[in-house]
């Protein structure tokens, strides 16, 4: 890990630690989550169940989480290469590192949820989704308005606090998530309007379609096996995670295009 990566990694790790402590002390013990194999369509094949630990009952839904870490590592490396090419500033790299370290941590949290089926990890899985979507809005603001760090920290704090809706109503998380998706889309569109990179619309719709796939296939998880037994192995939940990983990938591609366009315009003005 380079020195430039150390600060964003520390920030993500500290936020994750704070969220973990808040969850561990029981703040969200009454939040409704889905636990147990009954809530998942995937079943471990008989030939495999004899050779794996008892907790490894959903191999596809477990292993797919590596994708979050791979995308996070890949685009952190891309940001470093862009920096060496002098087409990304230190601030540009900082934003890429923050988002992608967050994505990698999210992959670990989801793995722990699948393996343990513990309520606290299920809460962390839900809760962690919100700051990831919120960061897309902050990222957009950093391109268009260059907000102060305290402003970004306040926006993130409000995002984290919004999970308290899940305590007050069973659909509180869904309400908060819908709002975060809406704000992320608005932020992405606003950033594009200021820096209309040619390739950006295609990747924007790729991210949007992946987001829809993430939601829809997760909802269809228990319905798809009614049509074919294949969906007890390649389940709707597994496909939704593939869509989620693609969503993170497309967000990176989108902001890479906008950032390059912004810096190109800046270079032209300075000439």
TrEMBL record:
The keyword Membrane applies. The chain crosses the membrane at residues 7-26, 62-81, 93-115, 175-192, 204-220. GO terms for cellular component: transport vesicle. This is Transmembrane protein. The keyword DNA-binding does not apply. Pfam families: TMEM187 (PF15100). Keywords: Membrane, Transmembrane, Transmembrane helix. InterPro entries: TMEM187 (IPR028066).
């Amino acid at each position: 890990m380079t020195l430039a990566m150390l600060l964003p990694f520390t920030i993500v790790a500290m936020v994750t630690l704070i969220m973990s402590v808040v969850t561990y002390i029981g703040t969200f013990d009454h939040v409704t989550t889905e636990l147990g194999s009954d809530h998942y369509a995937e079943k471990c094949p008989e030939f495999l169940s004899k050779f794996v630990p008892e907790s490894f009952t959903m191999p596809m839904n477990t292993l797919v989480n590596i994708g979050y870490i791979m995308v996070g590592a890949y685009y952190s490396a891309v940001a470093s290469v862009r920096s060496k090419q002098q087409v990304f500033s230190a601030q540009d790299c900082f934003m890429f590192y923050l988002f992608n370290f967050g994505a990698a941590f999210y992959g670990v949290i989801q793995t722990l949820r699948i393996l343990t089926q513990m309520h606290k990890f299920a809460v962390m899985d839900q809760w962690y989704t919100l700051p990831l979507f919120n960061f897309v809005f902050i990222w957009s603001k950093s391109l268009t308005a260059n907000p102060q760090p305290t402003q970004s920290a306040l926006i993130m704090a409000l995002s984290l606090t919004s999970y308290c809706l899940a305590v007050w109503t069973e659909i509180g998380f869904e309400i908060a998530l819908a709002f975060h998706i809406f704000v992320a889309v608005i932020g992405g569109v606003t950033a594009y309007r200021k820096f209309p990179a040619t390739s950006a619309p295609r990747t924007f719709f790729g991210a949007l379609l992946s987001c829809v796939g993430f939601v829809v296939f997760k909802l269809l998880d228990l319905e798809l096996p009614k049509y074919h037994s294949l969906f007890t192995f390649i389940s709707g939940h597994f496909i939704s995670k593939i869509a989620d990983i693609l969503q993170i990938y497309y967000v990176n591609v989108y902001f890479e295009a906008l950032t390059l366009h912004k810096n190109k315009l800046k270079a032209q003005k300075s000439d």
